[in-house]
Amino acid sequence: MIFETIGHTGHEQVVFCHNKDSGLKAIIAIHNTVLGPALGGLRMWPYATEQDALNDVLRLSRGMTFKAAVAGLNLGGGKAVIIGDPNKDKSEALFRSFGRFVSSLNGRYITAEDVGIDVNDMEFVLKETDYVTGVHQVHGGSGDPSPFTAYGTMQGLLASLNVKFGNEEVGKYSYAVQGVGHVGMEYVKLLREHGAKVFVTDINKEAVQRCVDDYGCEAVGLDEIYDCDVDVYSPCALGGTVNEKTLPRIKAKIICGAANNQLATDEIGVEVEKRGLLYAPDYAVNAGGLMNVSIEFDGYNRERAMRMMRGIYYNLGKIFHIAKRDGIPTFKAADRMAEERIHAIGKIKLPHMGNAAPRFLGRSRGQ
Ligand code: NAD
User: Fold this and answer.
1) Which of 168, 293, 328, 337 has the most CB atoms around its CB within 10 Å?
2) How is residue 358 annotated by DSSP?
3) Architecture of domain 146-334
């Protein structure tokens, strides 16, 4: 059954990790390592069934392959999940046990933070393996990726404005930003620096008030955000917000934001295109966080990170070009760009050569 599934998804390796004493039940999924070691976050979640955990890790790891490929990184796609409740099941032994499994893969999989995991958990993982990113700055890590993701989202926006309106004058246009958390707040700040008209919403009322008081945004209700008469809709909260109920209400000409999995279905993606909206594919736009951690391998450097974010502008340009070239929606063009790159780079590698192992320079595992 499992081989039938991974035969379909194209995974290279799925590792079931168990340690009775620490209570560890984890799955590491390595989807594709043609471009480099599989990097992807570790998620901790009280999955209702083991099958749910497996489905999640397979889906997420495959997504990472595409994201890294489009971002132009020498990384493959992987992900890991720990089955457990992050509010009660965490322990040093649990994360060190997980770290030992990561170590046993000798760099084929590199882990990072994801839902339910924080930087303190990663410190325990780091005690057992070098193959961890997103650790605290004191260990040579890159810290909070959100400002980079926001800056990357701006780059995606510039490319989108260019193709849709023929200019990149951010301040000339109006925006509906859904979710002003870590990324959304930074993004709003950047938009306002350009003098743009910005509408915001969030379930966190304090965050909304900050946008109004500190940045001069206009607050709207949670559901009203879809009806805003704006040029750009920027989902920066949850996934699936572009769906059959919301799409007819969205007046924007561009959808560009940081949230993952914005399109509820592929059919909606096709419909977005039919309605003449330009969709900036989410995983290309929000790759800033991934790019940022990828720099940790060679010793983290903020300037290099910012320069890399600028690449998102060019990546979006390539995606829009492929969409036009092949007459396909932009979300499909992003996948095609990833596949083309994996195929082309895969061909230049001789079978016995494998990938260069990441070096992790300038990092310490100390206390
Ligand atoms: P966050 O949790 O800090 O912010 C999300 C915000 O959305 C919160 O303020 C929350 O209150 C709000 N929210 C939740 N439900 C909402 C709703 N129904 N309507 C309006 N607001 C709602 O998360 P974040 O780190 O800012 O990430 C935002 C999105 O970007 C997520 O989808 C995340 O997966 C994606 N993303 C983030 C990064 C990163 O670097 N942080 C990188 C890539 C992708």
Assistant:
1) 293
2) P
3) 3-Layer(aba) Sandwich (3.40)
Q: Which of 25, 67, 79, 90 is catalytic?
A: 79
CB neighbour class for 327 (10 Å; exposed up to 12, middle 13-18, buried from 19): exposed
Residues with CB under 6 A from ligand 1: 145-146, 149, 178-184, 201-204, 207, 222, 236-238, 258-260, 286, 289
Residue 357 burial class via C-beta count within 10 angstroms: exposed 0-12, middle 13-18, buried 19 and up: middle
Domain positions in the chain:
2-66+75-132, 146-334
pLDDT of res. 367: 47
Domains 2-66+75-132 and 146-334 in one fold:
yes
**pLDDT surpasses 80 at 274:** yes
Which residue among 43, 142, 182 is best mutated to probe the pocket of ligand 1, counting the most ligand atoms within 8 A of its Cβ? 182
CB distance 232 to 157 below 8 Å: yes
Distance, CA of 295 to chain centre: 15
| C-alpha pair distances (Å), 132 with each of 40, 258, 314, 317, 361 | 10, 24, 28, 31, 13
The residues near 136 (Cβ < 8 Å, ≥ 6 apart) are: 119, 122, 123, 143
Cβ atoms 26, 101 nearer than 8 A = yes
Q: pTM here?
A: 0.91
Find, among 149, 230, 229, the residue nearest to 184 by Cα.
149
- Phi/psi for 263 (5° steps) reads -80, 125
CATH topology of domain 2-66+75-132: Rossmann fold (3.40.50)
With the CA atoms of 63, 259, 145 and 192 taken in that order, what torsion angle do they form, in degrees rounded to the nearest 10?
Answer: 150
Q: Is the pLDDT of residue 66 over 50?
A: yes
